[in-house]
């Protein structure tokens, strides 16, 4: 059997440990494990990296503990809308969706755009109409809004804060040697209406290019897109000759003078090497290689 691997993140943030309850930690670990197992099952039977990434992200979109699909962050008016992207490292094909409502699994809409749309990126009502035409599952706005996120939204509005975490992303290497990356988010809490995150922007939140690397980012999207962080990892490997972990760390720190804020990423190469890099004390993350038991970590002092 050829090498295969999947690695995921479920958001990076700077947070006091006591603000994350034991129950939350447990739910995060369980959700990450489920997503890794879902992706792994596909890779093990010879499925593609794209299929594995989409399935792993779909599982996290359906999990209300993460900021994607159900349980996503709400904008300044308390509304949920979503951004997502998928990229196929085999041929640089990609699909992105921005500010879309109603679609149960935004990552599936991104896939649909990659496979069946003449454009690379659809946003807003056009994206929603495309989802309807393609027969994707739609949900009432209330499906996406959980009590927990509504409470967090109230706090953000009262404190006039814009905060974000729990975005989900996955990178995979399949047995054919192909890489793929995907990211899905409900965006920042209390963001302006119409604001789009880094997640669907190819080269910012999401990038994959055989044989160099696949990357998915999380953190403050407004700086991630200005630093083209996902593409930077690739550039450091390809043109800078860096090893994957060094490239990932460089991408996070290199613009620190101008781009200040939380950032994290997961990356994977054709050798099944995995790199996590983040400037926060928490990044929910995990990986599994060759179908082995998933390795999961949340805090910066945990070994992965
Ligand atoms: N990157 C996302 C955004 O800017 C937030 C996150 O990663 O949690 O909306």
TrEMBL record:
The organism's taxonomic lineage, starting at the top: Bacteria, Pseudomonadati, Bacteroidota, Cytophagia, Cytophagales
Keywords: Autocatalytic cleavage, Hydrolase, Protease
One GO process term, biological-process aspect: proteolysis
Site (Cleavage): 166-167
One matching Pfam family: Asparaginase_2
Organism: Pontibacter chinhatensis
GTP-binding found in the keyword field: no
PANTHER family with a match to the protein in the record: L-ASPARAGINASE, N(4)-(BETA-N-ACETYLGLUCOSAMINYL)-L-ASPARAGINASE
Residue numbers annotated as active site: 167
Residues involved in substrate binding: 195-198, 218-221
GO MF annotations in UniProt: hydrolase activity, acting on carbon-nitrogen (but not peptide) bonds, in linear amides; peptidase activity
InterPro entries: Ntn_hydrolases_N (IPR029055), Peptidase_T2 (IPR000246)
Name of this chain's protein: Isoaspartyl peptidase
């Amino acid at each position: 059997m050829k090498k295969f691997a999947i690695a995921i993140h479920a958001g990076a943030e700077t947070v006091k440990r006591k603000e994350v309850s034991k129950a939350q930690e447990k739910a995060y670990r369980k959700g990450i494990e489920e997503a890794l197992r879902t992706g792994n099952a596909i890779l093990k039977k010879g499925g593609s990296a794209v299929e594995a990434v989409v399935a792993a992200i779909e599982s996290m979109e359906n999990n209300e503990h993460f900021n994607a699909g159900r349980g996503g962050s709400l904008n300044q008016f308390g509304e949920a809308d979503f951004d997502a992207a998928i990229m196929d490292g085999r041929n640089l094909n990609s699909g992105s969706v921005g500010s879309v409502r109603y679609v149960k699994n935004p990552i599936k809409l991104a896939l649909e755009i990659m496979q069946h749309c003449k454009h690379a990126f659809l946003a807003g009502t056009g994206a929603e109409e495309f989802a309807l035409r393609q027969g994707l599952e739609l949900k009432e706005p209330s499906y996406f809004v959980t009590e927990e996120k509504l409470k967090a939204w109230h706090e953000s509005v009262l404190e006039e804060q814009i905060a974000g975490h729990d975005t989900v992303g996955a990178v995979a290497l399949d047995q054919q040697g192909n890489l793929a990356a995907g990211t899905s988010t409900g965006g920042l809490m209390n963001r302006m209406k119409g604001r789009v995150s880094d997640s669907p922007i190819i080269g910012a939140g999401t990038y994959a290019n055989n044989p160099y690397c696949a990357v998915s980012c999380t953190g403050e999207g407004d700086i991630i897109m200005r630093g083209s962080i996902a593409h930077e990892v690739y550039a450091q490997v390809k043109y800078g000759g860096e090893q994957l972990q060094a490239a990932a760390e460089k991408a996070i720190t290199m613009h620190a003078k101008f781009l200040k804020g939380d950032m994290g990423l997961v990356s994977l190469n054709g050798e099944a090497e995995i790199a996590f890099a983040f400037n926060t004390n928490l990044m929910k993350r995990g990986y599994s290689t060759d179908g082995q038991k998933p390795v999961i970590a949340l805090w910066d002092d945990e070994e992965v």
